[in-house]
Task: structure prediction
Amino acid sequence: VDCWDGQDGKPVVNHGRTLSTSIPFSDCIEVIGRYAFCSSPYPLIISLEVHCGTEQQLAMTNILKSMLGSQLLTEAISSTAELPSPEDLKYRILIKVKAGEEHDESSAPTPGRHRSASSPSVRPATADRPSMAMSPMTANTALPRRSPSVWDGNSAQRHVAGWPASATEDSDREGPLRPPEARPKRKKSSKISQPLGALAVYTRGQKFSALALPESYVYNHVFSFSERTFEGLCRDSKLKAQLENHAERHLLRVYPAAYRITSLNFDPVKVR
Result:
């Protein structure tokens, strides 16, 4: 959901910088809430691409809470730092957005209070369900290194789209990948306000840099890739295998390339 500042303090949804017509953010959320579980009871994730200022981000937060009510997940359903199963999140709506204000990328948020097993919105987790807190790669003290072709200046690098510079993380602009050692300090300021960022309980947007970095093991992160970026990374068979292993315990998102003007979606089967 591509969100922008609207008139009179009311945020709007618009495919940014195009000729598409804007609609009120409140209308969009109302329709989502009404039809979210008509086809399936399993959790719905709303991915927010936020271009709004702080004031209208607060308005977005209030709209989400007031219109979605008890459907909106606002806190962790257990005290354990792990992703719950879809079964545990039936009829719940999750918000994917970057963390709010200043945060340390290497630390995970503290899970909320443990809900009673009798709560109508939560089904108790089974005791034998495997933990999802850690990636399988944590067992290796020496992770496989990326292929040099991903990081050096040859043609393989130019096949991969650059990482977005904004807090929204959705960008198709081309640019060079930066190796892990060239990254800035982990603690940084986000353009997302704290109230809105706090709604990212199990789906905190995280810019991808490397699977060996601490943020890759935070249980609730979600890496977002443009279609071109993901296809470029998957040209390296070792990196592709690492991404597949990572996706067994963490969420990944690939959004369609800009050339898909008919709204066709990316087909992940084609990269196998």
